[in-house]
Amino acid sequence: MKLGITGLSGAGKSTVFEALTREFNEGGNKTENRLGTIRVPDVRIDRLSEIYKPKKTIYAQVEYFLPGQTGHTKDAGADETAWAPVRDADALIHVVRNFPLFGLEEPHPVKDFMALDQELILIDLAQAEKRIARMDAEAGKAKKPDPEERDLLGECHALLEQETPLRRHPHLAFARKLRGFAFLSAKPMLVLFNNTDDDDSLPDAGAAVSEENCMVIRGKLEHELAQMTDEEAAELLEEFEISASATDRVVKQSYKLLGLISFFTVGEDEVRAWTIKEGTSALDAAEVIHSDIKKGFIRAETISCDDFMDAGSMAAAKKKGTLRLEGKTYEVKDGDIINFRFNV
Ligand SMILES: Nc1nc2c(ncn2[C@@H]2O[C@H](COP(=O)(O)OP(=O)(O)O)[C@@H](O)[C@H]2O)c(=O)[nH]1
Ligand SMILES: [Mg+2]
Questions:
Q1: Residues within 5 Å of ion ligand 2, judged at the Cβ atom
Q2: pTM of full prediction above 0.90
Q3: pLDDT confidence of 207, banded at 50, 70, 90?
Q4: Ligand 2: distance of its center to the CA of 200 in Å?
């Protein structure tokens, strides 16, 4: 699962990527694709690790992908090739410039956001149109095209024509029959307004972005913070009156955007976060750890992290009845601590 970083040229994509991943590439090759894997901060794992003092502590991770593009430039039109690198991303981070940059016009964050969003809608529209025309041409033939797919595409087409991104309509965005199209506007999106150092408020955007997932990041400031020692960073945080780096929030939000949650396994050897899709059953969660655990699944000994912290220990939790046995079909919740009982 990875998030593709997109945005107009000069929006701060490279700056944000480096702040998030802490992988710096000063004066390096700007046209190379970059992939960064980083851990998802989680206080629950911090606490569990303090309690169990394991040999290893493993956090969940997310991946960010920065295409080594020449970039989207204004007035380029709906340039499909510029989007090709993020086609297979599971979600998009759209970085929007909200700071003055020498050589570029004054920032117009909302206008910029909409320009690029419209581009992605147009590309989807053209793709849907082409496929619909093909299907309709084949409708009279012996091997008829799938009517369900045709209906879904018709729905997409109508929405796209009204400049509505498909991500607003989950039944289309997640439709199995449309998966092969990898529509760009169907991908979950986080809009990151990249502000100047002394401004941490969302731009006045009105209705235009009210339905989007929006966050503010001060890219340059975060980029500096990411290169500092903890003491230096603390000083800067104080100076700008911020309680914590925004990158942590962005990373957590990214994980959520992908529809991912964590369950935990604990012990003296290892405290570990495991990543699953929201809605995953205990049986399928078992497989994430090992196929044998799924095969020999008996029960999932389960407690929420909060209940565990309340009880103080597994023994106390058992007495209180908050440590319980769940079966194969139990839907695992974010923050469950699970011990799978299995038989091979
Ligand atoms: N003042 C300010 N400058 C920034 C910020 N983010 C990026 N920049 C600068 O804007 C320029 C373009 O940034 P870059 O990350 O290369 O943009 P990209 O083309 O989207 O990858 C660089 O000179 C950055 O140092 C920011 O938040 N504030
Ligand atoms: Mg760049």
A1: 13-14
A2: yes
A3: confident
A4: 22
